[in-house]
# Entry
Amino acid sequence: MRTQFTLKCTECKEENYTLTKDKKTHPDRMEVLKYCPICKKHTTHKEKK
# Structure
């Protein structure tokens, strides 16, 4: 079963992306380098609580 979650920028704290993941294969919180349109650069995005 895939669950939906939101990624939040670590610099400006905006929620920019919505993704899905399989909790069985990835039980930990995700951390991804993505483009932030508010900061206008690539920043680290972490899975929201």
In short: The chain has one domain: 2-47. The domain at 2-47 is CATH 2.20.28.120 (Rubrerythrin, domain 2).
